Amino acid sequence: MKAVMFTEYGSPDVLKICEIAKPVPKDNEILIKVMATQINYGDLIARDFAHIKPAEFNMSSPLWLLSRFAFGFNKPAIKILGSEFSGIVEAVGKGVSRFKSGDEVYGYAGMNMGANAEYICLPETGTIGLKPVNLTFEEVATLPYGTVMATSLLEKAHIKKGDRILIIGASGGIGSIAVQLAKHYGAHVTGVCSTSRLGYVKSIGAEKVIDYTNEDYTKDGEMYDVIFDILGRGKFSKLKSCLKPDGIYLLASFKMKQVLQMVWSSISRSKQKVICSFASEKSEALARMKEIAESGEIKVVIDTIFPLSETATAHRYVESGNRTGNVVIKIG
Question: What does the alpha-carbon distance between residue 140 and residue 42 come to, in Å, rounded to a whole number?
Answer without folding.
Answer: 18
